[in-house]
Amino acid sequence: MDWHTLAARLFGTTHQVVADGDFLCGTAAFDGATLAIVGTTNHAAVGVDLALRQARAILEVVAAHPGRPLLLLVDTQGQMLRRRDELLGIHRAMAHLGGCIDLARRQGHPVIGLVYDQALSGGFITSGLMADACHALPEAEIRVMRVPAMARVTKLPEELLESLSRSNPVFAPGVANYVAMGGVRSLWDGDLAAHLRAALADRDTTDRRAEEGAARGGRRVAADVVRQVLRA
Amino acid sequence: MAGMESLSFTFDGGRALAPFAPTLVGVVASGNLEVLVEHAAGTGCRIDIDTSARGFGGIWEAVLRDFHARHRAAGLSVAIHDMGATPAVVSLRLDQAMAAVRGATP
Amino acid sequence: MTRSFAEMSARERLAAVVDAGSFHEWLPPAARVMSPHLAQLGVPAAFDDGVAIGRATLAGRAVLVAAQEGEFMGGGVGEVHGAKLVGLLRRALRDRPDAVVLLAESGGVRLHEANAGLIAVSEVMRALLDARAAGIATIVLIGGANGCFGGMGIVARCADTVVMSDIARHAMSGPEVIESAHGAGEFDSRDRALVWRTTGGKHRWLSGDCDTLVEDDPQAFRDAAVAALDGHRPMTLAALQQESALLQRRADLDGDNADAFELWSRLGVPDARSVPDLDADAVRARRPAAMAPLATGAA
C-alpha cells in the first residue's frame, strides 16, 4: 500500500503528512488529538542523512509536544550500502535514531511502528523494532537479507535458503511469521483506524516480544532463556 | 546435502580422576572443535561427537582409542562439537582438555 | 611481550579483563543452552551459543559481563545468544551492578537464524538502553579481528562507552557487502588500508565515534573498562539534541564523498596522511577538541 492511501485510510484526507524524497513527516488529527508521523517511503535506503533527519523530527516532537503519540511508518530496503555512510558512522546515526525513539518512549510518548511495505535489517532495527510495539499490513514484507546475498555470506546453497524461506518460520519473510515470533504485535487489516486506536490504547511499554513469541509458538526458546538467566 | 553426524564411543579400563568442574576447550569453527569434559558416574570414558564432517567414523575411533591409551581416564564424559577438524587438531584439543581438567579445581 | 587481545578467545579475553578469578558464569557450557535452529542447516551448535555471560568484579566493583566468541558463526546473534544478552541486561536492572561490560565481536544478526536473530538483536538493543536509562554504566570493548558490525554495531554504539583497539573495526556493513552492491569503485574490499581508515579504531577515535582508543592489549582494555565504570551519561533530550547537531555538522563536512584523509583534515586532524603509520598513543593525541563532545573524551 502506498503511503498516501495508508494515510487516507488512517486519517481521512485532511492530514498534514508530506513526503520529501524518501522522508515522511507530519501530523494528523486522530480521535481529537494530534498524532506525529515520522517515517520513510520508496523502499528507502537508510543512510546517515535519512537516519539523522528522522531523529531530528522525533526530537522536535519531544521538545515541543509533550506526550504526543508518535507513529513510525516503515518502508525501507535496509541500510545504505555506501562507503560514505560507513565513514560517517551510519551505525552511530542509527544508534542515535534508536536512542531518540527510546527517549520519546521514556518521556511518555506512545510510539507505534507500522510496516506498510518493506522492512529489511538495519533500516528496521532502528525504526519499527524500537517502537513500543510494531505492527504490519498483511501484505508487507520483513526480511533480514535477500536470499542471494544471504547465500554468499553464509555459504549455504541458494536452493536450500529458498526452500527454507517457503517452509520455515525462521527464514520466511512473511509478516505472519513475525507475528508468530513476537516481532510484530499484530496485522492491521480492514478498519486500519480501529487498529491504530487499539495500539494507542496499549500503554504497557515493556518489551514483551519474547513472551509473545513463546505464547504464539514461533519463538519458543528466548523467553525461557531470559528467565533462566534471571534465576541463575 | 546438509546434515550432522552423531557418533558415540565408550572405553573401559581407566582410572578415576580427582573431582573437577566441567571444562571447555576450543571453539566451533571451520577446521576446529570444542570439547566439554565432565565427570560421569561409572568407570567408563564416554565420548559423544556431533560433527558436520560426515563419514569419518573410523578415523574418530582411531583418534579416540589413542586418546584413551594416553590418558586412561575413568568416570569421564567427553562431548564434542566438530566442524571438520583434522585428527591432529582433535588430539590437541583433547589433550588440552585433559590438562585443564587436571589443573582445574571443583 | 604483551599478548594480542585480537588473537585471544572470548573466554580468554573475559578472564584477562575482569579481576583474576572473579568471573562466575551463568548458563555455562555444561548447561547446554544451545541453538535450536542450527542442526537443520547441518551446522554444529556451540555449548554456550557463542557467548559467555555472568558476574565478575572489575577493580573490586561489581559488574555483569558478556563476551562474544567471534570464531563461532562470526559472533552472529541467534535466538539463544541474544536471549542470554537480554537476560544479562535485565538482570542488571535487578542486581544493580556498577556496569555491564560487553566484549563484542559480531557480524550482527546470525543469518542462519534470520528472523529470530533480527528480533533478538532488537531485544538486546532495547535492554541495553533500559540498563543505561537505569543509571548503569554500559561499556563495550571492541578488539576482535571480526570487528563489530550489523545490528550489533548499532547496539554497541547505544552504550555509554565504546573502547576500541586501533586494529578493530566498528561499522554497519562489511566492505564485501558494499562492494557486492555497488562495485569495487564504491568500496574496494581488498584495500585493507581503505577499509581500516573508513571503519577502524583510529578513524572512529578521530571522528568522535569511539570513546577510548587502546592498543591491541588485554591490559589496555582492562584499564579502559575500569576508567569507564564512572562514565555513565544519561540520554537526555539535551544530550540527544547536542549529538544530533554534531553528527549533522560532521556529515556536512563530507558532502562530496571524500576519503577519510580528507575528512580528518577537515575535522582538524594535523598531518592526516601520517595517521595510518602512528601507534594508538600518537593517534590519541591527534583528536581535534571539537570531536570530544561526540565521545566521552576519556583519554
Features:
A: 232 residues; alpha/beta; two-stranded parallel ribbon; globular; B: 106 residues; Ribosomal Protein S5, domain 2; five-stranded mixed beta sheet; two-stranded parallel sheet; 2 helices
Q: What does this protein look like?
A:
The complex is a heterotrimer of chains A (232), B (106) and C (299). With 232 residues, chain A is an alpha/beta fold. Chain A is 45% helix and 21% strand. Chain A has helices spanning 3-11, 48-64, 83-87, 90-106, 121-125, 147-154, 158-167, 175-180, 192-201, 209-216, 222-231, and strands spanning 18-20, 23-30, 33-40, 44-46, 70-74, 76-79, 111-115, 118-120, 133-136, 141-143, 186-187. The termini of chain A are far apart. In chain B, strand 3 and strand 4 (33-39) form a beta hairpin. Chain B has one domain (5-103): Ribosomal Protein S5, domain 2. In chain B, 30% of the residues lie in helices and 34% in strands. In chain B, helix 1 (57-71) runs parallel beside helix 2 (87-103). Chain C has a seven-stranded mixed β-sheet with strand order 1-2-3-4-5-6-7, with helices on both faces. With 299 residues, chain C is α/β, with parallel strands linked by helices. In chain C, helix 2 (79-95) packs parallel to helix 3 and helix 3 runs parallel beside helix 4 (150-157). Chain C has eleven helices and seven strands. The interface between A and C is large, with 77 and 80 residues.
- Average the pLDDT over all residues of chain A and give the rounded result: 96
What is the CATH superfamily of chain C? 2-enoyl-CoA Hydratase, Chain A, domain 1
Q: How many strands of chain C?
A: 7
Kindly report the name of the CATH homologous superfamily of chain A.
2-enoyl-CoA Hydratase, Chain A, domain 1
Provide a count of the helices of chain C.
11
Structural class of chain A: alpha/beta
Instruction: Please give the CATH architecture of chain C.
Output: Alpha-Beta Complex
Strand order of the largest sheet of chain A: 1-2-3-5-7-9-11
What is the general shape of chain A? globular
User: What amount of the residues of chain C lies in strands?
Assistant: 5-15%
Percent of residues in helices of chain A comes to 40-55%
CATH topology of chain C: 2-enoyl-CoA Hydratase, Chain A, domain 1
- Unreliable stretches of chain C (pLDDT < 50, length at least 5) are none
CATH level-1 class of chain C: Alpha Beta
